[in-house]
Write a structure and sequence with these properties.
homotrimer, 351 residues, alpha+beta, 15 strands, 29% helix
Chain lengths: 351, 351, 351
């Protein structure tokens, strides 16, 4: 059955907002509850105890499965509960992009964005065609002529990523598997958390709908953030201690105000291009940027869904407060579903 | 007179929450006032002027003494004011653990924890027996076989602490006094601020009472945080500039959500063990951790009372907001006293 | 016409708060709107679109000019709108201190502070005579006998600033233009955001009026903050990669509570001295400090107006919440104007 038809069969007064119990689930449940929705947490093997410590984010129901792929099999059961899935970053990672595309459950956002997000070449094509400035990419390590970040498929979540200042340093690691070699931009990192609504008709308007900036964070990465305390990179290399880039948490930041117009312009172009390419990047997305000492943005990645970087802002951010007090990204998603239901346009924000 | 009897003699409707005017006193007074308590600030020699700038945290009364040890002598006078002492980190440091044990004043929390906190060996025994993963300790500098943090008693508040990558680097400083040599873990630091209530019967339940996570911070440390800007550690050593680890402030952080279940599990085990060992670590405590690039926690210390790391959260945290809006640790303490008074169980949270 | 007379001619019930659309304008407009004022945004060439994303900070009117100096020419027109200008950091930079002094528009704060702020020698004289501890300054590079920060006029916003550990390192850059050579203090940086009201008669009282501490931030600086990830300074120099100090954003911090009395004392002395020197540093100001591992403040600069470092606190700070909930510096300015209007003392906070 097509998602549209499933959605048609739903009792719209009893919509349940559901996601996997990890990543950004606390704010997703918290926001949904605040907006009056029932909530359902999908967990593996047993009920996670830690939610009991956070009564305002405790889902109304837990749905226990054996492994994440089981979600595909229990779709019917979840349909009966009028479930709309919020696919956070771990959702995609655990289930796999392919499986997410096959899932017979109404899912917040546009699933047609997934191929443009998960394939690095397509993602780069999308962002460059939207006019964004990105770090150079090298097709062969021999071409390295500046410091680069090397990412390869064997590396788990940033664990094996490394910086090479030249070809020789590349050879010291010389990963065999497929990799990307990206210019390493020096500057300060800003992960800018936007929200695109195709149905909201006020605020920062686009050709269709409107755009919001909800928060900005910076990722904590182990061990690169603090390893310098031990000694210089060169000294540490002798001891076999190599930097790694595993995300362990997030910090709230604000951007120099004069850079905001450019940040909006980039996000606007990314959305407009996505409308052309695949029907639009609906809901939350994150532009991952470095600001250089020339006050220029370099965008090194986009995440086409709610990112963990929105977690510092469960109680609002210096930006979202200018829209509405205590507006987390999780709550913004719930508001979008509520608005779409009211307007009879759920089909435009669900896929 | 035993604390129980002193407490019995109190006019429970006129309880006054008191602490030394430093460390976390602003949030302790602020929280107590919000919950309707009278407040009293103990200060040395003169009324500190800076509270007048913060009307919502201004204690109702200042109690001026000559030096901290005088608190022991004026206990009777404070008893007449129905004072309950909140012992923050500086309270313990200024008064000394020994003196705190002798103080004839009802004190929030369990004083029997103090010996387990202040003695490094006992603290390690406690945490290891609770199943926590801790950095290795070396009984002799000759055994150093990895980077270590060296702490010695002559060092004041992190001033003389140093990192040695091997035995030779240890010898360059070679402190004579008693010291601990602890494996230096590379990763990112999270200071996780919990609250254990033996009387609250909802939320994240333990064998007795329940557990809360109120906030997570990271310490600012001078000069280690920023000294790298001058040059590499090796270059700076030539100039006689050595890193130091003196806490000067705190920053708000959030932890990767998938690490929360483990954080709760650790705290749960620490509390359960403390119930066995000494009657329970009652009230706020802090697990001081490093998260490695394997996404494992290493716990390098526990603080068995309110820490300065809760100061960024006077107006709430992304975690406490999921329990109740604008819930600081200071306010949480006041709520606990209020609840215990209501239940007639003050004696269980006071010692 | 003198500012006093212009102010006299104003319809006080229709005051419009105005500033240039950049820097801290979001919180200035947001705060003014919250306090019931009309707001006007001065922009170059066209209406900036990004405000539409922040409805609570959207000015009621945009006033479009060709370049910033045009403000001087359109003063009459703005006077008709009963405009009070809030001069933020970029305002001063764009217009120039000289021009700001000539502007025929009621301006929040005391313009007589400007000469004491923009001239480095006079600023130093002011702060030292207020008893503040500042980094040493070297009148000649040959005198360098410790690590120094070198600032020169050709450098744009921190781009060419550099650290030299000795005279030789100075010679490697050897800037020709006028410069300041300031001892480089190792420690952690705290940018402490105060507010001085000459008309408020409660709180932390001074010889005239009172003092508030509204927030503390730390600046993000590109590329110095993150460049260490590439390798040691010495290695990077070989590659031609030099540190730079361009402010790109801000992070919220709190200070060790035991340092607050000293912070207030410094600010108090700075205000009292300013009353002597030029009639007072009215409104927001920022002491830019390093805290050393001896827990001493070194003040390296003062900003005599609202700084971008107040932007993380649009929804309040752990300090301002102790005065009034959700009190940004922008809102505090609006409250001051409101109070002065009520008391008939606008002339004392406007120049």
């Amino acid at each position: 059955m097509a998602i549209k038809e499933i959605l048609q069969s739903y009792n719209k007064t009893k919509i349940t907002i559901a996601t996997i119990c990890s990543h950004t689930s606390l704010q997703i449940f918290h926001g949904a509850k605040k907006e009056g929705f029932r909530t359902l947490g999908i967990a593996i093997e047993k009920t996670p105890k830690f939610y009991s410590a956070f009564p305002n984010a405790m889902p109304n129901e837990f749905f226990i499965i054996k492994d994440y792929k089981e979600i595909l099999k229990v779709a019917k059961e979840l349909q009966k509960k009028n479930v709309i899935i919020i696919p956070h970053g771990s959702f995609v990672e655990y289930l796999g992009g392919e499986n997410l595309l096959k899932m017979d459950l109404p899912t917040f956002g546009n699933r047609n964005v997934i191929p443009w997000e998960v394939n690095r070449k397509k993602q780069r094509e999308w962002l460059l065609s939207a006019g964004l400035d990105m770090p150079k990419e090298f097709s062969s390590p021999k071409e390295i002529n500046c410091p680069v970040m090397v990412k390869f498929h064997g590396a788990k979540g940033g664990k094996g990523y490394f910086i090479a200042k030249n070809y020789d340093e590349f050879l010291e690691v010389n990963p065999k598997e497929i990799y990307t070699i990206q210019e390493y931009i020096t500057g300060t990192r800003y992960y800018i958390n936007f929200f695109y609504s195709p149905i909201k008709n006020s605020g920062y308007k686009l050709s269709k709908g409107s755009l919001e900036l909800l928060s900005i964070d910076r990722r904590d990465e182990a061990n690169i953030d603090e390893v310098y305390k031990l000694g210089s990179k060169e000294e540490l290399k002798k001891l076999g201690i190599l930097p790694s880039f595993v995300v362990t948490g997030n910090v709230s930041v604000v951007l120099r105000e004069s850079l905001l117009p450019k940040a909006f312009e980039m996000a606007e172009n990314v959305v407009e291009k996505s409308l052309e390419l695949c029907g639009g990047i609906i809901g939350p997305f994150c532009l991952e940027t470095v600001v250089t000492d020339e006050l220029k943005f370099k965008v090194f990645e986009i995440s086409a869904r709610i990112v963990a970087g929105t977690n510092p802002f469960i109680f609002g951010s210096p930006y979202s407060d200018l829209i509405e007090e205590k507006l987390s990204t999780g709550r913004r998603i719930a508001k979008e579903i509520k608005l779409a239901r009211k307007l009879g346009r759920l089909v435009e924000i669900i896929s």
